[in-house]
Amino acid sequence: xxxxxxxxxxxxxxxxxDMAGASYPAAEASGDYxxxxxxVDGGIGLAxxxxxxxxxxxxxxxxxxxxxxxxxxINRRRTSAVLNRANQILAEDLSDNDQFVTLxxxxxxxxxRRFTYSNAGHPSGYVIGADGRVRLEMxxxxxxxxxxxxxxxxxxxxxxxxxxxxxxxxxxxxxxxVGPDGSPFGAERILEVVRKNKERPAAEIVTAVHDxxxxxxxxxxxxxxxxxxxxxxx
Length: 234
Description:
The protein is 31% helix and 26% strand. The chain is an alpha+beta fold.
């Protein structure tokens, strides 16, 4: 209950957008993280992260990461600047216990529909266009947060969002869930679920991804935390 209260109570309200996120823990507490951050000049930060492992220890690190990012993001414009500072702080705490945090942070400028991101060792995010094609794959990545104190994270080139785009950020529990035959759910199934549901509200797309993963695994036992954030350009 305490951890669920740390997740956003509601998504930001921005004209022309529909945003949602959810996290489904595999144990009593989760190492997954998602958030919507206030950034300089009206930017909205979309963050999805994953602490190694799951359970109480990673949940504590997740809460720490959330606090750092919220404080650091509020007076910084660039996603790389946010990750650079958060990484320096986390490295002091995590360097002795072999834990780290993968995280992807995007910045959306609602008025211009411009989007940029930085990726700290996290699985790719996607922007899927109105025609169903992948317009952007956020695959460039540097080491996770907390591993190397002097890592210099990079901003992606500015990307122009268009009407009908669906932006999706996920943790690896979604892609790596295995079916009865041992095969992973995989990126292509993720994209197919989003394509089939892209006309639905963002919250329903998040639910559809979770339901598809659980159906694919064919078991009531969830092996890893599952987290997704979806932002639609209306």
